[in-house]
Design goal:
Layout lengths: L3 E3 L1 E5 L3 H4 L3 E7 L3 E7 L2 E6 L5 E9 L4 E11 L1
Parallel strand pairs: 1-7
Antiparallel strand pairs: 2-5, 3-6, 4-5, 6-7
């Protein structure tokens, strides 16, 4: 199940810093979805016109490997 945001909302990844040391967050979005980083690991997602999807990729680096977790968010009206 993909989480939904109505019109605009905040996506908060601040708990990651408590659990992980080496990671980075990348994002991409549909044409009408806008993502703005407003603080460390907090992103504002909005859509105009309503509808679309934002995809966040969390890359975690270990000693010898790399893990990628994807988190999608639907922006609905």
């Amino acid at each position: 199940m993909v989480p939904r945001v109505r019109g605009e909302g905040l996506i908060d990844f601040t708990n990651l810093s408590l659990l992980l040391k080496n990671y980075e967050i990348e994002y991409q979005a549909d044409k009408n979805v806008y993502i703005e980083r407003i603080a460390d690991n907090i992103y504002k997602v909005r859509s105009s016109p309503p509808g679309g999807r934002a995809l966040f990729k969390i890359k975690v680096y270990g000693n010898f490997d790399e893990y990628i977790v994807e988190k999608a968010v639907d922006v609905v009206s």
